[in-house]
Amino acid sequence: MGKEAIADRIISDANKAAEEIINNAEKSAAGIIAQAEKDCERAKLGVRAEVAEKSKAIADGKAASARLDGAKILLAEKRRVVDAVYESALKRLKSLEKSKALKLAGALLEQYAEKGDEIVFAADYAFKSDVAQLGAVKEKGLKVSAKTADISGGFILIGKNSDKDVSFSALLAADREEHQAELAAGIFGAAN
Predict the structure, then answer these.
(1) 115 near 91, Cβ under 8 Å?
(2) pLDDT tens per residue, range 39-76
(3) Cα distance between the two ends of the chain
(4) Alpha-helix residue ranges (DSSP H) falling in the chain
(5) Whether pLDDT at 190 is above 60
(6) Pairing outcome for strands 163-165 and 155-158
(7) What is the DSSP string of 115-132?
(8) Res 112: pLDDT
């Protein structure tokens, strides 16, 4: 074998070795690329799941906030309606016809007045002199004051031991405290 043949063989062996190295490198690169694609796909799925979870949390938070805002609006509307009911009741009490107004005044005096109390009427109370003629006034020795009180209808009782506010607004406030829940349930239904 001559020099040329040896050189050709060396070159041929080197080319084979180079091809083998290239083939091995390509196989290794393909494996690395395949693993990287799998890792990338797994990472994308993880990120998508995390984004979906965060999106759901944000949507749930906004829905809860919207429900809360809706409940606040509904409660405010219910209060407004109940307020209107009691405002209407106050107007009706202030505009009672004489016989009903005197019957109410008599019942209040029988229940709340004590011997010697002084009756102080609201400035706009229409039946002061008629109330002064009621049996409870005479029986309990009640005095009718010339002064008026800054109250919404009815009267207050000034006593030796205590004063009693039996004005229409005080009576309605006590009624509201006791019956507001059942009034709201009657107006809006028990489910609300």
Answers:
(1) no
(2) 888 888 888 888 889 888 888 888 889 899 888 988 88
(3) 107
(4) 3-94, 98-112, 128-132, 135-139, 168-188
(5) no
(6) antiparallel
(7) TT-EEEEETT-TTHHHHH
(8) 93
167 CB-near residues (< 8 Å, 6+ apart): 122, 149, 151, 152, 153, 154, 155, 156
Q: How many CB atoms lie within 10 A of CB 86?
A: 16
- The answer to whether the beta carbons of residues 155 and 119 sit under 8 Å apart is yes
Q: What is the pLDDT of residues 103-156, one digit of tens each?
A: 999 999 999 999 999 999 999 999 999 999 999 999 999 999 999 999 989 999
What angle do the packed helices 3-94 and 168-188 form, to 10 degrees? Answer: 130
Helix (H, G, I), strand (E, B) or coil at 140: coil
Strand bridging mode 118-122 / 155-158? antiparallel
C-alpha distances (whole Å) from 25 to each of 12, 15, 29 are: 19, 15, 6
pLDDT computed for residue 167 by the predictor: 93
In b/e form, how buried is each residue of 144-171, taking b as 16+ CB within 10 angstroms?
eeeeebebbbbbbbbbeeeebbbbbbbb
Mean of all residue pLDDT scores within the chain: 87
Q: How many residues are listed for the chain in this entry? A: 192
pLDDT given for residue 192 in this prediction: 45
Per-residue confidence (pLDDT) for residue 123, from 0 to 100: 92
Encoded tokens for 33: 């690329």
Q: With CA atoms as reference, report the closest residue to 123 among 100, 93, 151, 144.
A: 151
